[in-house]
Specification:
alpha/beta, single chain, seven-stranded mixed β-sheet, 43% helix
Length: 256
């Protein structure tokens, strides 16, 4: 067994996270640079250190999960969401059940609230947002972002939904109250059901084909009939019917 395979087994035992389901070359490259930076010679030594040092384990989890996000990322897709997807979903259900999966530092679920607030009162909006990494969930709950994260936010929304604090922007409390953050592992944990919309963007590219297949199958089961999955701009599903999906719009898939 290679030292990386030993590392995978140890991490699965310790955290429940199965690194074998992530693309090996990308994950190895990312983690090798981390252990070398910390002064370890190989994965076995690094694993021993992780088992004894909570801060190092947190840093490892941060490096393993990909926390690059911004508000209204790929702005045209959010226009489609506001003008086409949400109005259609609201025809059959006035209180939508929405899940932002692998939500990272919170830009995505907060963007969902901001878009939906154009169509309905905040008091009727509730988003479930989940991530594997407890550190990014804490950052998401804080809701403070550098200006560059807001580059695609329309100016009226920026004025209405944020408070400026020096060079940073804080999401207003009334927006924050619409989002419930929880820890969730897409590869291990159970999925809730009857969602109207699931948003999972720019994370599937890091998984193996086997893991993607498992997650898309679970997303399909978690959506109600005619519910919609919204994926990232590099994550087109080439065989949507396999998961009982059909294309609703570019990067939007409707459960049939």
């Amino acid at each position: 067994m290679s030292d990386y395979e030993q590392f995978i087994e140890g991490i699965k035992r310790k955290t429940g996270i199965d690194l074998a389901l992530y693309k090996e070359a990308q994950m190895k490259r990312r983690l090798t640079s981390l252990y070398e930076k910390k002064g370890y010679r190989n994965f076995v030594d690094f694993l021993k250190a992780l088992e004894q040092d909570r801060d190092l384990m947190n840093e490892f989890l941060d490096r393993m999960t990909i926390n690059v996000s911004e508000f209204y990322r790929n702005g045209k897709r959010w226009e489609v969401l506001q003008e086409k997807i949400f109005p259609k979903l609201l025809q059959s259900n006035k209180r939508l059940k929405i899940w932002s999966a692998a939500c990272s530092t919170g830009e995505e679920p907060y963007s969902l609230v901001m878009v939906l607030s154009q169509l309905m009162p905040l008091s009727q909006i509730q988003i479930i947002a989940t991530d594997l990494d407890e550190n990014v969930i804490q950052k998401a709950k804080l809701g403070v972002y550098p200006e560059r994260s807001l580059a695609e936010v329309p100016s009226d929304i920026k004025a209405k939904c944020f408070e400026q604090e020096g060079s940073f922007y804080r999401v207003k409390d009334e927006i924050k109250r619409c989002v419930t953050f929880k820890k969730h592992n897409l590869l291990n944990d159970n999925y809730d059901s009857n969602y109207d919309l699931i948003v999972c963007r720019n994370v599937m590219i890091y998984f193996t084909e086997e893991a993607k297949d498992q997650i898309y199958t679970n997303f399909s089961k978690a959506l109600r009939k005619d519910g919609v999955l919204f994926v990232g701009s590099t994550e087109q599903i080439f065989n949507p019917s396999r998961y009982e999906f059909e294309v609703e719009d570019t990067f939007f898939y409707r459960r049939t």
